[in-house]
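Inverse folding, one chain.
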């Protein structure tokens, strides 16, 4: 172990981060929390905030550490374990799953920052990071003594901001030796103005409010060039696990895709329970007449299982650390899968909602909330099948990616 890693390990040793030994242990830990998270799901949807108790319980169970290097007290279990945990939470509360995915996924991105920044943030399991990426125009970072002045106004979709100590934003440097380059700035959440503008159809509890940044100073160490974030890990992560070899930009949507897939899984369980109730006391002839409903349930379950299996297979490949072996067809397939899986789950979830009849349309119905959450989660830009499917077809034909072949 190098000197820097030894210092990091010694500092992290005093933390109270529960370390999880395996994916199975992580899944077992989160399943123990599901009844309490489920009990808060309706209130989370109503208030627009994930319950503080849910965040604290996930912290106390060590689950925010599934992607954190062991040198900082994390478990470094990888993306299959991470996806599995998000997916389990989604079965009872889509918003909590989404927020957990966002706040945990960025721990991988931080392994590209200088070691001192990693220690600052990753050394404490409560130091969560949210991110806003402006697709059309990044914020501007103007060089000044000791750092940069950031301007540019508002940016949307800062998921989980109320529980984030740090916010990452994309900037374009407009002067100095790195002029014109894209970079990422890490900013303390309490220095950023947050707007109360999250009034949406679904995923209401994700707290995905807009933030405003205008004339804010950020020190130089907390801004990393995008090319560096797309490069190899820095510090302990480079020695700990193969999945850290993957640049975060190639993985970002994998952090949240488990949420809509998990919600769809949860809808299967609710639909089974509802159907059993409707069939209670029915004679064989009436039961036989529900064959179409049974077939609908079967097809929905198959679609959700296939979608989940698709992402699990990709997550296992990520954990193997084979990014250097990726071909253009592989890159296109990963993006195809990320879009296809939530869209397939969305179709299955809507089919289940249709089968519920009038009992499902009440606003307080768990099925109605979950239907809204699946459709809202699947609307994320990274899950746009209209972009990813044609690009995969292009790759199959040996054509270069279209210019729209981007996501964050």
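Residues assigned per position:
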């Amino acid at each position: 172990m190098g000197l820097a890693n030894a210092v990091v390990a010694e500092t992290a040793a005093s933390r109270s981060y529960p370390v999880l030994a395996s994916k199975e242990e992580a899944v077992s830990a989160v399943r123990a929390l599901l009844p309490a998270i489920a009990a808060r799901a309706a209130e989370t949807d109503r208030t627009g905030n994930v319950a503080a108790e849910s965040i604290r319980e996930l912290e106390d169970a060590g689950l925010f550490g599934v992607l954190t290097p062991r040198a900082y007290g994390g478990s470094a279990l990888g993306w299959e374990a991470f996806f599995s945990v998000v997916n389990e939470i989604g079965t009872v509360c889509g918003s909590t799953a989404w927020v957990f995915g966002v706040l945990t996924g960025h721990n991988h991105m931080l392994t590209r920052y200088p070691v001192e920044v990693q220690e600052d943030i990753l050394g404490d399991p409560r130091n969560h990071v949210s991110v806003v990426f402006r697709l059309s125009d990044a914020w501007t970072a103007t060089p000044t003594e000791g750092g940069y002045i950031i301007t540019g106004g508002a940016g949307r979709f800062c998921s989980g901001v109320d529980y984030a100590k740090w916010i990452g934003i994309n900037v374009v440097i407009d002067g100095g030796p790195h002029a014109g380059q894209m970079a990422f700035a890490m900013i303390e959440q309490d220095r950023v103005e947050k707007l109360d503008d999250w009034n949406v159809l679904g995923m209401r509890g994700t707290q995905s409010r807009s933030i405003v940044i205008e004339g804010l100073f950020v020190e130089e160490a907390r801004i990393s060039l995008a090319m560096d974030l797309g490069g190899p890990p820095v510090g302990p992560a480079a020695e700990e696990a193969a999945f850290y070899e993957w640049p975060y930009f190639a993985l970002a949507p994998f952090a949240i895709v488990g949420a809509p897939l998990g919600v769809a899984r949860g809808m299967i369980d609710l639909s089974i329970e509802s159907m059993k109730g409707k069939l209670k006391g029915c004679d064989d002839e009436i039961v036989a007449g529900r064959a179409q409903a049974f077939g609908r349930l079967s097809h929905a379950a198959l679609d959700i299982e296939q979608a989940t299996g698709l992402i699990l297979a990709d997550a296992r490949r990520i954990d193997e650390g084979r990014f250097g072996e990726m071909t253009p067809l592989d890159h296109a397939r990963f993006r195809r899968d990320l879009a296809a899986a939530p869209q397939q789950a969305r179709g299955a979830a809507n089919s289940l909602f249709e089968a519920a009849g009038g009992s499902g349309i009440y606003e307080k119905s768990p099925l109605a909330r979950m239907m809204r959450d699946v459709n809202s989660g699947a609307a994320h830009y990274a899950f746009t099948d209209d972009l990813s499917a044609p690009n995969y077809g292009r790759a199959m034909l040996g054509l270069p990616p279209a210019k729209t072949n981007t996501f964050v």
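DSSP finds 14 helices and ten strands in the chain. Residues 242 and 398 are 29 Å apart (CA to CA).
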